[in-house]
C-alpha cells in the first residue's frame, strides 16, 4: 500500500504552508510534487516524513496511521538537495551506514552494498571518498544509502536541484529506470515542470499550500483543471476573448480570458476561412522548434511555436504578413485567478 494524506494542514505563525491537502499515492508509484517556490511542497514532504507535525489531518503509511509516529518509526528513505554524505566514510561505508545501525549481519550488509553499488551504477567506486566523486555520483550514493534499509517509501526533496543542467537531465532518466527496477513508492519535490513530467507516473500540482490538480503528465497538460495549472505547465498565451485571433473560432463566447498554447496557434501564409491577419514581429530559432512573435492587427501579441518542418514549408521571414487561428484553446472561470 502507499501513502494517504488526509486533510492535512500546517501553519507557521499565521501563514498556511499546507492547507487542507488530501492525496492518495499508490503503492509502487513515482509521484512528483510540483509547484512554484513557497507553494508548500517541501512542507508536505516533511509532514509525510515525520519531520514536521501537522496542525490537523492524518497521514497513513502502508495503511497504518502514522500521523504522530517519529521519523525513526516510519520506514522511510530521505534524500535532500544537499545530502551531506559522511565525508570520512567511503562510498561503501556510507551505503552500509543504515544497516550497521540496525545491526544487520556483516555478510548481509556486504552483499546488499555490492547489489546497491551495481543498481546505482557505481561499481568500482566503492572505496572512494565523497570528495572524490562528482555531484551526480554523490546523489546516487545518497539514493543507494536511503535504499539500503529497504524503505516502504522514498522521499526526495529536489534531489538534483544543485546539479548542472546536463547532469540533472541524465539523472532524471536514471531515476526513472531505477524506479522501474525497485518499485519503491517514491515522492519527489521539484519546481521544474519538465522534470516532473519526464520522471513521474503522476504529478501533484501545488499552489499556495493547496493541491490544484493530480494527474498523469498527459492529463495535466491536456486537461488542466485550473488557469494556474495551464500556465505553470509550459508556456501559454493569455488573451482576452475579444482578441481577433478568436473571431469565428467559437472561443470568443467563453470566459473573458482565453489560454492558448504557442504550439496550438496555426499559422498560414494565405487567408483561409476564419483567420486573423498578423505580422511576424520576431523570429527565434530554438533548434527543434521555431518561435514566432506575431502582432495581430488589433495590437495583441501572440507567441506561436512551429516545428522546423512546418517553418521550412512556410518559409517565413521577419515582418512577413501571415494569417493565424487557434487550434485549441481553453478558458477558465475568473475565480481561478493566477
Ligand atoms: P521551495 O521550492 O522554495 O522550497 P516549497 O514549495 O517547497 O518552496 P515550503 O518550503 O514548503 O515551500 O514552504 C512553504 C512556505 O512555508 C514558505 O513561505 C516558507 O517560508 C514557509 N515555511 C516553511 N518552513 C517554515 C518554518 N519552519 N518556519 C516558518 N515558515 C516556514
From TrEMBL:
Top-rank EC class of the record's enzyme: translocase
Record's GO cellular component terms: ATP-binding cassette (ABC) transporter complex
Membrane topology (UniProt): Peripheral membrane protein
UniProt EC number: 7.6.2.9
PROSITE patterns per record: ABC_TRANSPORTER_1, ABC_TRANSPORTER_2
Keywords: ATP-binding, Nucleotide-binding, Sulfate transport, Translocase, Transport
Domain spans labelled ABC transporter: 3-233
Molecular-function GO terms, alphabetical: ABC-type quaternary ammonium compound transporting activity; ABC-type sulfate transporter activity; ATP binding; ATP hydrolysis activity
Gene3D superfamilies cross-referenced by the UniProt entry: P-loop containing nucleotide triphosphate hydrolases
Superkingdom of source: Bacteria
NCBIfam families (UniProt xref): 3a0106s01
Name of this protein: ABC-type quaternary amine transporter
Amino acid at each position: 500500500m502507499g501513502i494517504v494524506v488526509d486533510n492535512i494542514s500546517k501553519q507557521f505563525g499565521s501563514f498556511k504552508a499546507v492547507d487542507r491537502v488530501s492525496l492518495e499515492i499508490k503503492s509502487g508509484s513515482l509521484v512528483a510534487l510540483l509547484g512554484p517556490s513557497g507553494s508548500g511542497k517541501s512542507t508536505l514532504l516533511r509532514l509525510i516524513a515525520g519531520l514536521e507535525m501537522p496542525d490537523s489531518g492524518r497521514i497513513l503509511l502502508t495503511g497504518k496511521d502514522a500521523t504522530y509516529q517519529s521519523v525513526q518509526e516510519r520506514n522511510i528513505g530521505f534524500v535532500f538537495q544537499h545530502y551531506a554524505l559522511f565525508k570520512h566514510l567511503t562510498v561503501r561505508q556510507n551505503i552500509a551506514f543504515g544497516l550497521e545501525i540496525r545491526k544487520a549481519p556483516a555478510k548481509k550488509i556486504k552483499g546488499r552494498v555490492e547489489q546497491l553499488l551495481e543498481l546505482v551504477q557505481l561499481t568500482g567506486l566503492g572505496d572512494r571518498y565523497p570528495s572524490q566523486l562528482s555531484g551526480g555520483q554523490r546523489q546516487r550514493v545518497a539514493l543507494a544509502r536511503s535504499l539500503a534499509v529497504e524503505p516502504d517509501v522514498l522521499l526526495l526533496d529536489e534531489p538534483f536541484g544543485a546539479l548542472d543542467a546536463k547532469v540533472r537531465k541524465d539523472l532524471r532518466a536514471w531515476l526513472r529506470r531505477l524506479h522501474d527496477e525497485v518499485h519503491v513508492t517514491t515522492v519527489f519535490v521539484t519546481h521544474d515542470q519538465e522534470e516532473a513530467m519526464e520522471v513521474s507516473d503522476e504529478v501533484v500540482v501545488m499552489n499556495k499550500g493547496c493541491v490544484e490538480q493530480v494527474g498523469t503528465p498527459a492529463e495535466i497538460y491536456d486537461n488542466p483543471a485550473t488557469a494556474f495549472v495551464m500556465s505553470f505547465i509550459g508556456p501559454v498565451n493569455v488573451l482576452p476573448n475579444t482578441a481577433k485571433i478568436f473571431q469565428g473560432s467559437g472561443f470568443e463566447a467563453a470566459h473573458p480570458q482565453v489560454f492558448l498554447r504557442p504550439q496550438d496557434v496555426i499559422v498560414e501564409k494565405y487567408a483561409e476561412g476564419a483567420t486573423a491577419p498578423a505580422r511576424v514581429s520576431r523570429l527565434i530559432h530554438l533548434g527543434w522548434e521555431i518561435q514566432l512573435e506575431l502582432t495581430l492587427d488589433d495590437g495583441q501579441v501572440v507567441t506561436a511555436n512551429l516545428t522546423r518542418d512546418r517553418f521550412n514549408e512556410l518559409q517565413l521571414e521577419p515582418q512577413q504578413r501571415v494569417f493565424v487561428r487557434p487550434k485549441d484553446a481553453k478558458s477558465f472561470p475568473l475565480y481561478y485567478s493566477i
